[in-house]
Amino acid sequence: MKSLISALILLCASWYSYAETVYLTSLDWPPYSGKSLSEQGASVAVAQAAFAAEGHTLVVEFYPWSRAVKSASTKDSKYVGYFPEYHYDTSEFVFSDPMGTGPLGLVQNVSAPISYSSVGDLAGKRIGVVQDYVNTKELDEMIASGSIKGEAVPSDVLNIKKVAAKRIDAAVIDSNVLKYLLKSDASLSGVQSKVAMHPTLLQDKQLFVAFRNDAQGQKWQQIYNAGLKKIDIPAIMAKHLN
């Protein structure tokens, strides 16, 4: 009996010595992430569960998006990555396996709806985007070329207000984000009846953690991916999105 107890003590000591705390950055992007949300949002809940499945603790610190990305990219920073992010071409970061999806589309003014079935149909339109957000490759390329008149602002809330005021034709937004903001943001109380998602989505985007592309980032990418395989991602996401 004593030998069994000793073995258990050694096992526990070994586990705790192995357990680490990992730091990631994020932004207030409800219902996916946010300091004041239950479990800090759907995506954070997934990330917490994945790291916990591998015996580690996740600490998420929230910043404006540009700072969240920059903080995670800085060499020797305590942050090894940021999330939730869409996949894009980069040498600075390596991406995790998918950790859920988000339906990306356009919010439009209900009294001045736009007609489109593909991104090419948006040529010449004034489309709002959030500064430094990745959208879709085709849309971002058309904005960069000037084919679409992209107007960047710091937040989704500002884009919703601009659409409601008909200052732009539409704005890129995740439909879950739009639903959450229209319900919870007091500054949008007068526009709920003026805006709605266009029924045609741009893309059902996969969500990822972007880990810094160095030894530490790659180490945590592998640990995180192993943890994702042990949890029920759809169930965790649904709990927060529904």
UniProtKB/TrEMBL annotation:
The keyword Signal applies. Coiled coil: none annotated. Residues 1-19 form the signal peptide. SUPFAM superfamilies: Periplasmic binding protein-like II (SSF53850). Keywords: Signal. Residues 117-184 form the SsuA/THI5-like domain. The keyword Signal applies. InterPro entries: SsuA/THI5. It holds the Pfam family NMT1. Belongs to the bacterial solute-binding protein 3 family. PANTHER family: ABC TRANSPORTER SUBSTRATE-BINDING PROTEIN, MEMBRANE-BOUND LYTIC MUREIN TRANSGLYCOSYLASE F. This is ABC transporter. It comes from Pseudoalteromonas rubra. The lineage of its organism: Bacteria, Pseudomonadati, Pseudomonadota, Gammaproteobacteria, Alteromonadales.
